[in-house]
Amino acid sequence: MEINEKLENLFVKEDSISQRFQLNTAIEQREYLINGQLKHWQGPVQDVYSPVYIKTADEYSQKFLGQYPLLTEKEALEALDAAAQAYNHGRGSWPTLSIQNRIKHVEEFVSRIKLVRDKVVNLLMWEIGKSLTDSEKEFDRTIAYITDTIDALKELDRTSSKFVIEQGVIGQIRRASLGVVLCMGPYNYPLNETFTTLIPALIMGNTIIFKPPKLGVLLHQPLLKAFQESFPKGVVNTVYGSGQKIISPLMSSGKIDALAFIGSSKVANILQKQHPKPHRCRFVLGLEAKNASIILDDADLDLTVKEHVLGTLSYNGQRCTALKILFVHKIIAERFLEKYTDAVEKLKFGLPWDEGVFLTPLPEPGKTDYLAELVKDAQKHGAKVINKYGGLTNKSFYYPAVLYPVNSKMKVYKEEQFGPVVPILPFEDIEVPIKYIIESSYGQQVSIFGVNSDMIADLIDPLVNQVCRVNINSQCQRGPDTFPFTGRKDSAEGTLSVTDALKVFSIRSLAAAKENEINKEIINQIVRERKSNFLSTDYIL
Ligand code: G3H
To answer: pLDDT digit of tens for each residue in the chain (541 aa)?
Structure first.
């Protein structure tokens, strides 16, 4: 069957979907977690629809998935009070608890959420259209991230459990919590990227208010009980609803001590300005990116094409790390384009649970129109869609459009498309891609493809000063999660990795004393009799 025919038949009747993935009852979520209580919401709710359409006798409609509460300023401030009370200016039981005990709570949480893996994976597919393989990966990667975080914390704790004596001063230097942390993740990794900030913030002794992203909300519902049962009251609180209504009052209260936000720089700017004393709030931000790839004239074509398929189109290009603009040397351009478009044509598209599926429907309302507009604008300025069926649309599904040759007059040259549109520019002078990267508003990563080590070395040295990861013959990516993940310019603030995240949500604090007999005796007593969790030489194995 030709691609266009297959595309026409993409959406099917509900009973043709395997029983295993069918969602028979909608999730009518009314509960939200504040101060250890799962409260029941009686106010307005938000309907949630899937990007997957269901075929009925004579029409197609988006599958209704359920509803979640649209809380107001009042509940948001209740969540803030609960988190602030649990923190109690650093005197609460959670921030003063030993690391070992905090780890126990997190381990308990992990064992509880593992039980709802299938539910969460299924909701990831229905809510954001992520393929089964990628949804399972997202869940498992999150569990691995949590266990790696626990190991990294033990390591950190071991190195800080000793005293330092310097210039007649005895000191014990550890990391202490910051206070109330507001965590907001993005829709493309609603579980993983929320938890890569929430868990480190939590385990370092902060208390949390957590708002799920706009899309990918219901998949957090099966985790609510686990939060409630694993942590003391007020340590984790959840809020739902419009950012303007519930996040603005939180930020303008001045009581948020750290904001972990993965989203757009536009929203991040607004939130930063809302805090009355921004220097009192630590901002940990993962924002837009427009990662470029530079394909040199001697690149290994098979490897380059393979990495570009992943880099440009994994999860339909909806990754902050996706390759969003390609610079290909003129000498190799024609061969690259041919092989790349052939590879794109072989990609399987379908519904998230279809076996081997790579391309799936897009969850953002209006996204296919936006992508079509980008393509139209590029065509107006001289680009062509060079792959057969490129840009073909069926409701929420957009078939990848490969654009060539792209130039600086086109919107897609600068805008982060965050979807399956692939802009490609030819170049002869290496200054062309370098200039692009320098002038870009973003500075997350870059990929270089080629085999000449002199040429690659000449590019690495200046480019590490423009972006935060230079990938050689490899697509851009965040992982492994132990590697630092950050960006320059409008791409990020703060560094995340398993270890960096523990540091970013804590501050170095120390107990110090001049080395004299009285002080030595006091310290010895505290340590010997285990009077303090901070001033202690205990370490966790
Ligand atoms: O959306 C941005 C993600 O952090 C990218 O992660 O490179 O593992 O897909 P990834």
So the answer is: 789 999 999 999 999 999 999 999 999 999 999 999 999 999 999 999 999 999 998 899 999 999 999 999 999 999 999 999 999 999 999 999 999 999 999 999 999 999 999 999 999 999 999 999 999 999 999 999 999 999 999 999 999 989 999 999 999 999 999 999 999 999 999 999 999 999 999 999 999 999 999 999 999 999 999 999 999 999 999 999 999 999 999 999 999 999 999 999 999 999 999 999 999 999 999 999 999 999 999 999 999 999 999 999 999 999 999 999 999 999 999 999 999 999 999 999 999 999 999 999 999 999 999 999 999 999 999 999 999 999 999 999 999 999 999 999 999 999 999 999 999 999 999 999 999 999 999 999 999 999 999 999 999 999 999 999 999 999 999 999 999 999 999 999 999 999 999 999 999 999 999 999 999 999 999 999 999 999 999 888 8
The answer for residues whose C-beta is within 8 angstroms of residue 364's C-beta and 6 or more apart is 187, 215
| Contact in structure between 532 and 526 (CB atoms under 8 Å) | yes
* d(CA 321, ligand 1 centre) in Å: 5
391-to-27, 68, 387, 399, 405 alpha-carbon distances in Å? 34, 33, 9, 5, 16
Q: With contact defined as beta carbons under 8 Å apart, do 423 and 308 qualify?
A: no
Question: Residue 192: CB within 6 Å of ligand 1?
Answer: no
Q: Is the CB of 130 under 6 A from ligand 1?
A: no
Please choose from 321, 485, 498 the residue to mutate so as to test ligand 1's pocket, defined by most ligand atoms within 8 A of CB: 321
Residue 477 CA to ligand 1 center (angstroms) comes to 6
Element (H, E) at 427: strand 421-427
Does residue 291 have its Cβ closer than 6 Å to ligand 1?
no
| Cα angle 197-193-123, degrees, rounded to a multiple of 5 | 130
- The protein residue whose alpha carbon is closest to atom 7 in ligand 1 is 477
188 lines ligand 1 (CB under 6 A): yes
